[in-house]
Protein 1
Amino acid sequence: MDDALAEAKTRFSKKFVPGQNLDIEPLIADQWVMISLLQKSIRRGEVATAQRAAFTLFAQKGSAIWRRFMVIAFEDVGVASPDAVAMTVAASTDPSWRRKNGGDLHIAVQLARVLAQAPKSRSAEHLITSAQHHPSLAKARMLRGASSRTDQLAAVMKQNASLTERAIAASCASGVGWNGEKREHSDLAAVLETFHGLGVPDELVAATGIAARKTREPITLMVPLVWLAANCDSYPTIIEPEVPVAKIVDGVPMYSLDKHTRLGREAVRRFASENDEMQETLARYVPAARRNDAAYMAAFYADAAPLATKLVWKDADELEAFGTETDLLLSGVPPEGFAPLLAALRNNLGHLNEVRARVFVQYRSAGAGVHSILAAGRSRCPTS
């Protein structure tokens, strides 16, 4: 089915902007901030920032960027633009094609633009998070994991079953396990063929299979399942939610300092210790040993998760609420604390951004090593 992506490469090449990366300046921050920034700026549709992040990250990490692009495509774009997902997988897994079409840096910059401009859906992320971790599904995970592959595939095909039940079954049957491990007696090809038989487009099935093998991330298998659910809705629509205003320091938006970065965690801890409302809310609802985790997750949902363009389908809001609930429960927040904690963070996002800026500037002042990383990286980044 790899041939199904040939047309995706052709479509992608037609979207190229000649010489675009000539005017891009790298950003000064470590690779973890750049990884975060690439993903969050794509979520927000911020094309120029996403391209600067891709330019910088390629200088820092080289070919590792291609796996990151595939994860972003499935996690943040998904069913809102299967076309962009297919183009991402096609470009990210064919170095020969990249060489013939301007080189790796050119393709990385172009791909960042395509993903930033595409409509978004995080439904696959909410689905895999819930299927893997929600406490109410613990028995379902145990039973499905112990069932035969035939029964697992039958559960994937069961169209009146819940999405989470089908997600658990698909992951178990595929061999792409909860932690990326290869499961015995599993068959990814059979899962892909099941998707095909249910009507998932060939190109999306092909992209899913390639990405599942390359990334070993079970989220890849969620996109076809969400596609099936979303296409049962007669009126899926694209909306443009308002996203929080970003504070920017030397070109780096502070929303990139989130729970996935050392600087972000440090900033959130400082903020939680300085801000009265956040302190009071955490003390009221969250055990002392889990308050940092709760604050990290609240900050993520406040300004790292929002999408600037978003696909809405019949059950999307319910799935998002279930995924958010799962994340907050895992962070030590009881149900009665969900709304107060998220409100406290959003009410004081300006304060958090000021703390982030202080932490980032302090890091930059002491971080000569970051400059040397970029200097070394530029030597392998042609500008044409």
Protein 2
Amino acid sequence: MSARIKWMRYYKIKNTDFVFFLLTLFLIGFIFGINYSPIKVVKEEVLRYKMPNLTTITEERMVEMLVPAADDQGNGAVAKLVTRVRPAVSPGYGMMMVGINDVLAQYDTQLSARIAAKAAEEYTGMDLADFDIIYTIEVNATVIEGPSAGAAMAISVVAALQDSEINKSVMITGTIDDEGKIGVAGAIPEKISAAKENDITLFLVSSDLPPQSTVKSEKSCNKINKIEYCEINYVPKETDLSEEFGIELKMITELEDALDYFLI
């Protein structure tokens, strides 16, 4: 074999190795660029600014807060919500469960809990599939209206993720969607009354809540041929719940609004 042929084969091999080296270098740069692109860096910086207390969770965190409820008779009550967040045994396969008085909650409450966790995930930017989230509700009431605890559930998850304390003088009732919008709940006067009895000074409700009203009786009389005829009419009267119960009432729209009052 001539020296020229040997040199050409050697050159071809070296040229192929060089091309392979360039392709490998390109792939490494591409992967690096995706993971550390300006968009991702900016997003991480925004999250760090928005939630400075957000830290890596290596063990279980527990948050307790009071939530208003209503029994099947329409009476107001106060429940204790205990939320536990811990790393899942298998990342990506986290468990979620709601128990009321040590009994598995009904479907609507389970669904509300999942939506609440999704809202917390959207707010924090964390993947909650890597965590177990266990809600326990303790209350002396026959039936709990599950969806109305959604906002409180979302707040408790965010508090656990940020390792924040809960302001015990604040209470909230309201549903929540997976983007963090607070919705209307029922039995507002009854819940406010129960909150007042438990030394709550600030009560949060959805800004979509319609004006509350009571029925007032009004007596009207007319004289016909010197004879007085009277009748009682019942008319609705708008009520100032804050003044009626002696508790501050605030209207909020988003999860972020509620967190401003709850997190310490």
Protein 3
Amino acid sequence: MKINIVYFTSTGNTLWLSEKAKGFFEQAGHQVQLFEVVKTGDSFLKTSDMVGIFYPVWASNLPNPLRDMLNTLEDGSQKGKKMFLIGNCAMFTGDTGMYWKRILERKGFNVFYINHLVMPTNLNVPNFNFQKVPDEKKKTKILKKAEQKLKKICADILADKNKKDGISPLGKFMGWGQRNFYEKGTEPWKNLFSVNKKRCTGCRLCYRMCPVGNIKMQADAKPSFGSKCILCVKCYNLCPANAILIGEKSEDSHKYRRYKGPSKKLKPTTYR
């Protein structure tokens, strides 16, 4: 069977899960290809028997690039193509999968499996630090548990088991609240991005990894920020010098530890 996985990764968690799932499916004798949505759009649909969507949960919703691409598909266009949804979040997933199941089934997909995993948080900023970015020991523990769960998830998918995640009344209510108020509530954050020019080395990594082209390089080789930010926090976390700031208080990179991703082998920073 040909399984195509499309994903969007912020700081590497979703890419890590996608690659692990690819390995589990291939061990079972299936052909698997990964598609990063920013680079490939909907090309993953053309050569697959089954499609997987891997995503970080953003306030009970998909990341903007995945959301935008899937919304462009015509209703009824997929004619029963099998699909599974695997999300990840540090805290609360709400009814993300079930919300998108309804949308995707109007497109014609047969969304038969939905599940979510806990992964290390990548969001530790002033005024929004409910969880701390874990140290290496705690991160390793979280990743080990996630990998074990993912292995079972992949086996269940291949066994054609049905799974729904996010059907509780609380999940539905909280999911509705997050989707309706999160984006408005976080809009002011987009104006808080700045760069500590003394720390910045001019490496241009932030410019290369921004998925929406929101970062421009100035004549002094320092970045500036436009109005298209989607708050993926790639630049904030993955800057080697911790020069990208979200508010002045975030200069304290000990208190507001950056998340450098689940593995040094992954480089979720070069596509655009």
Protein 4
Amino acid sequence: MRAPGRRRRMLCAAAPGSRELIMVKKKKVILDNPAIDRALKRIAHEIVEKNTGVADVVLVGIRTGGDGIAHRLKSLLEQIEGSEVPCGYMDITMYRDDIFHAKTVPEVHKTVIDFPVKNKIVVVVDDVLFTGRTMRAAMDALMDLGRPRRIQLAVLIDRGHRELPIRPDFVGRNIPTGRGDLVDVQVGESAGGDKVVLAPRPDKDKLSK
């Protein structure tokens, strides 16, 4: 018989040869609406400071997680600087290195970038940075549109477990996670408010960030 109030925890073995164990746990809110607001405001100020303003800055949100965050950053940057910041949205599905290994057909979304990226400081925006493979695909996609002067990366959550040498320039929050955990970012999706939820292990065939 378990002691009263004690949580029940379940562990499942990782892949053969790995020492990592995956803990199956209940969903947990790790960032609420005010915390997300503070993180995005800080990122916006850091973008202005790093680039000495926003004269040559454009935002490109990676669909589908980064588009809502990019829109929020656009509003914040325009409030800070008082000038318009171009913002577009890019689908990188066909540039992924794991697209042909997925067991399901991935959904392809529309890319909407109606401004030039050549010689611009392109801030690529995403919700979660994980393995780095999404960002590698995003850079390949951007190069097909033009040659930016500089590419920077802004993410709300950096959860670690990088497989490629990619590091964000602007981070809302670094959150230690198990490799099998799911970080669910909900920005502008429901009337319940924005939040970031740490959830149990997702479908292992889900494409990684």
